[in-house]
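[SOLVED] Need 3D model of a two-part complex

Original post:
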Amino acid sequence: MSLPATKDDVVVAGPFKARAASILQLSIKPKSFDMRASAVGIAQSVVPPLVVLAIILIVWEIAFSSPGASLPPPSEIWVQSKDLIIDPFFVNGSQDIGLGWRVLVSLERVAYGFGLAAVIGVLIGALIGQSIWAMRGLDPIFQVLRTVPPLAWLPLSLAAFLDSRPSAIFVIFITSIWPIIINTAVGIRNIPQDYRNVAQVLRLNQIEFFYKIMVPAAAPYIFSGLRIGVGLSWLAIVAAEMLTGGVGIGFFIWDAWNSSRLTDIIVALVYIGLVGFVLDKLVSALGAAVTRGTASN
Amino acid sequence: MSAYLKLDYIGKSFTRGATTTEVLRDIRLTIEKGEFVSIIGHSGCGKSTLLNLVAGLTPVTIGAVLLEEKEVNAPGPDRAVVFQNHSLLPWLTVYENVNLAVAKVFGRTKSRAERHDWIMKNLNLVQMAHAADKRPGEISGGMKQRVGIARALSMEPKILLLDEPFGALDALTRAHLQDQMMEIHARLQNTIIMITHDVDEAVLLSDRIVMMTNGPAAAVGGVLDVPLARPRERIALASDRTYLRCREAVLKFLYERHRFVEAAE
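Solution:
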C-alpha cells in the first residue's frame, strides 16, 4: 500500500533517498535475522530433550547391563529389535509385519471411532448447550458415564456387536465422546448474547444459526474437547486391542509379552508415544487453523 | 400523516423469582418517517431496554409497538440494530459480516452481483470499502462501529436503532462518526432512534430528544424539539443560540429535575 508513495519520494526529492534506502535495508534485515532467530528457537526446543534422552539412555544402559537384570538395556533392544526400529513398513507374512502397518491399522479404528464421536459429540453438545432442559436431563447422566474406564465397556460391546472390530471402535467412540460433548456444551453456553441478538435481528433459522454462529463461536472450546478426545481414544485403542486381538499395535504388545519379546514391547511403546504425540499436535494445529480470528477480538 | 412508529403505552417488568421490577411505565411516543430521535437519560433508567423492546429482542409486558400500524413483537431486519459494542462476528471479514445480513435479507430478491454491489455500496457509505477483507480484530474500534452501521444499513431497515453507538469511542473518532451519521441520514432520509447519554450528541444529531426520568418505572419526562436547520455544522453550532438553549434544556432536565440518585438503589 505504501510502496507507490515511497517510489514517489525517491523520484521527486533527494533528501528522501536516504530514508528510502534505510526502509529497504530494514525490509531485508529482519528476514535474515528471523532465520537465525528461528534456528536458535528450534535449537532451544530440540536440544534440551535430546540431551535428556541421551542421559536417560546412558543411565538405563548402566542400570540394566548386569547379567541378572530383569529388563533389557538399550543396546540389547537395538540388537534384538533392529528390524522393527529401522523399517516400520516391512511385510514378511500375515502376522510378521512392520510396526508402521500395525499403527496404521490402529489409526484406522481410531479414525472411525473418533470421527463418529466428533460428529455425534458436537451435535449432542450443541443440544445441551442450547437447551436448558436437555442439559438438566442429560448432564448428570453424562457426568456419571464419562467416569467409566474404557475397558469396562468392552465386554458389553463384545456382547452387543459379536465381533471384535466394531467393539474396539465402539470403545474408542464411547471413551472419546464425553469431553467433546461437555466442551461443546460449555462453548455454546458461552456464546455472547450479542451474537445471539445479531442472529435474532437477521432472523437466522436454527440451521443457519448452528453453522453460521454456533460452530464458529464455540470452535475454540470444541477443539479443546476434540484434543482431549483424540488423546483418550489413542489410550483406549491400545488397551482394547490387547483384548480383542487382530493386527493393531495393542495386540502386538500382548503378543510380544506372550512370547517374551521384551525388546519389541519397548520399541512398540516408543511408537505409541510418538503417534499419540503427533495426533495431539495434529488436532491442535487443525484447531489453531480453524479458529484463527475467533479468539482475537 | 399517521405515525410511522408508535409506542402505545408500553411497560416492561422483569420478574426474577418472587421479585418483580418495573423498569418502564406508560411509554408513549410517536415517530414520523425520516425523523432522527434521541433517547437520553441517566444510566440504568431503561433506555437500552426501551430500544430492545422496539427491536423486539425483549418482549413488552404491556402495551404494543406499532410499525406502520402493525404490531411488531419479534426481532427482524426491518428494525436493524447497531449495538453498542459493534457485535461483529470476529471469524468473518468485514465484507462477510455485511454479507451475512445482505444474503439473509436480499438472498432471494437480488442476484449475486447485485448483492456484491450492494455490500460495497454500504461499505462505501461508511468509508470502509478499503478494509473489506480485514477481520474485526485487525481494525480500530471506530472502524468496527462503522462496519456495524454498514451492516445495519445494508438490511434497508424501516427504522435504524442505535444503542449508544459511539459510547465506547474516543472524542475525536466520535465526532467524526457523528458527522458521518448526519451525512448518511441526510442522504438516505431514514428513520433513526438513537440511545445516548451524551447531551451534545443528542442535540447535534436529533430532530427530537426524548428525555427519560430515572428508574425504577422510568417514563418519558419530556420531549424536546430541536429546531435547528440541516445540514448542521458542529463548529458553527457551538455558539448558536438555539443550540445552546436546547443543550441547556436537556442539561437542566438531567441535572436539576431528574438528578441521578445513587442512594435510591
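Edit: The first helix of chain A runs from residue 3 to 12.
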